[in-house]
Design goal:
It comes from Sinorhizobium mexicanum. With 382 residues, this protein is α+β, with helices and mostly antiparallel strands. The protein has 18 helices and eleven strands.
Amino acid sequence: MATIKALTWDHPRGYNALAAASKRDEVIAAGLDIQWEKQPLEGFESHPIADLCARYDLVVIDHPHVGEAVAGDCLRSLESVFGEDTVRQLGADSIGPSLSSYRYAGKHWALPLDAATQVMALRADHIEGGAPKTWDAVLDVSKRTGKVALSLAGPHAALSFLSIAAAHGEPPAEADPDMLVSNEIGRAVYDLMSELASHSPRSVRDKNPISILGHMAHEADVILCPLVYGYVNYAAPTEGHVVTFADAPRRTPGGRPGSTLGGTGIGISKRCDPGPELKAHLLWLMSHDAQIGFIPGHDGQPSRREAWHDAGVNARWGNFYKNTAETLEAAYVRPRHHGYIAFQGKASALLRDAFEARAEASGVLARLQELYQAHRRAGEER
């Protein structure tokens, strides 16, 4: 029996479906012993991908790590494992940029197992009129209630900054890879976030998205988080209150719902020589049956577009998918160059400190641009 060592992240959404799938009769009959281990999500942000790939055959990664992985020459491209025709079909089947986000240096480096992006989370039982549609409406709820929280811990302050810039019509570093954001849009985004942060409940300021959603399910001091990575588990919880999910806010009615893509993919390390049985299993995880039935049935969050619009899946999970699919289709894809992850962390710390100090925008924006350029140059020099 072939032993496959595999690593994913420590949450039911990241582990349960993969572990259950590895125990299917078809997998055992094929002679595969897939051993899924898990580590905290933050561990992937701090642990070098090359080191993980040296110890595991399969590694669940986030797409901003692909630049680091390519620099370390530690993953097999999907084209080399499955062929270009299969990769093209995966792209057609996947929602939004779920597959294309793993494309770097002309190849794709991970199977889009799990699709996610920042969306709006709210306690619908505490907000009259439903989810606010625009950032002005979000700000109004914040001023009236003091119960609107920004997700600022870890890398999320920077991620929210990128998302709001995209909603304002300027997806960061897209028009000019050397420029994070213009002064005009940067100031608008910073001033909005600073105002919201000044009213944000301190009870969740140090919490990651999972902890914020868990807090909202049990407490009423946070009734709205306008940008937080969606976790379907909270839309139909086994305990606590339902957290309702909706599209991310827009700058103007009918505009783009600004959101930064998340999700995870399965990378195949170069220490692994995937045989036909393992290839078949991995492609089964991407299949119609798995994505609509098995994965949602085991706490996973599918990446296949038809699953997000499936009536049965939505009925089971409180319309989480239907209510946020438009945001995912339009999600902004972060830079993926080697060094971006380090920038993201430092930029978030800078923004948190600036919000706390109510610092003036111009100095903060200049420092953000300096950080971005420095890490971009460092990545190019590797």
